[in-house]
Amino acid sequence: MQLHLLGTKGGPAIRTGGPSPTAHLLAVGSKTYVIDCGLGVTRGLVETGMKLQDLETILITHHHSDHTLEWGPLIHTAWTAGLARPVMTYAPPPMHQLKAGFLAAMDFDIRTRIADEGRPDLAGLMGITEYGPGLVFDDGVVRVSALRNVHPPITQSYALRFEAEGRVVVFSGDTAFLPELADFARDADVLVHEAMYGPGVDALVQRVKNGTRLKEHLLASHTLAEDVGRIATLSGARHLVLNHLVPADDPSVTAADYERAVRTTFGGALTVGRDGLIIDIVSS
User: Fold this and answer.
1) CA-wise closest residue to 171 among 160, 182, 162
2) Nearest to 22 by CA among 255, 263, 253, 241
3) Once rounded to an integer, what is the mean pLDDT over residues 100-111?
4) Residue 270: strand pairing partners
5) What mean pLDDT comes out for the span 10-32?
6) Percent helix, strand, coil in the chain (nearest 5)?
7) How confident is the model at residue 284 (pLDDT cuts 50, 70, 90)?
8) Under 8 Å between Cβ of 162 and 33
9) CA angle 261, 262, 265 (to 5 degrees)
10) Which domain holds residue 237?
11) H-type helices in the chain, by residue range?
């Protein structure tokens, strides 16, 4: 089992030389699962060596653009690369609305390529199952379950637990400090958790015009690195991986800063995520 970090930045904006928004690839044997589709996910998947026509399963944690913006373009690009079988997407509501909007926006191109290039109808390749708390699916290889997290104003926002080959990988999704997540992630081999670095957030809000409102949102909807460490310790997670970093593209904030903050509350294996990082997941 391998985890590929394709995008590790919190928020939708991108900057020169900086990381991409949130996206992951979990590979279990020959099966692949894409978790979140922030801007850059398609390029990130190609860089792993994956053939886009082999795309099969996508999971979305919630409907913020840094997690969904490239969902439609990913499947469309796979379609132009030869995708001929349905891709199943599991997501909270309103995923059907996102599909309809994307197909409407790309209607001219899709109809033209079907007529001119003999491609199958793209709409028929975009399977959707909307999920809520509890079991999301069990395909015989991976069992996935969901926990509603705390990410106001969005209420349909979830953490995801993957169980396969005797191993457990948990993605926090975007969430404020959530003690219940420790139970959900109990004894995880890898806990992938979003993280904010407090002093970096203070500097960030000083630089932007909407700083006061932005800080209110960040503190209400995301988790400081010290609290991430608390969740990891309570869960007994064997390896903590930080992603959805805020800030992620401030040159004055380094991986060492995140590590120092987490180390005040967690003493286990720790990785500060970066785009392109591959983590081999081995059972204990």
Assistant:
1) 160
2) 241
3) 98
4) 240
5) 95
6) 35, 30, 40
7) low
8) yes
9) 110
10) 2-280
11) 41-47, 65-68, 71-80, 95-105, 107-117, 180-184, 198-207, 211-221, 225-235, 255-262
- Tell me what pLDDT residue 85 has: 94
pLDDT band at 205 (very low <50, low <70, confident <90, very high): confident
- Reported pTM: 0.96
Q: d(Cα 141, Cα 183) in Å, to the nearest integer?
A: 23
- Tokens 């630089």 correspond to 207
Strands of 57-59's sheet in order across: 126-130, 87-91, 57-59, 31-37, 23-28, 2-7, 278-280
Query: Residue 209: what pLDDT?
Result: 79
CB burial readout 57-81, b (16+ within 10 A) else e: bbbbbbbbebbbbbbbebbbbbbee
Cα separation, 192 vs 33, whole angstroms: 15
- Give the residue-averaged pLDDT of 223-232: 98
Tell me which residue has tokens 């994956």: 50
Amino acid at 265: T
CATH number at residue 215: 3.60.15.10
Higher pLDDT, 279 or 210: 279
Number of C-beta neighbours around residue 97 at 10 A: 10
Total domains present in the chain: 1
Identify whether the C-beta of residue 189 lies closer than 8 Å to the C-beta of residue 282. yes
pLDDT at 220: 95
Percentage above 90 pLDDT, the chain: 93
Which residues are registered as beta bridge partners of 7?
Answer: 23
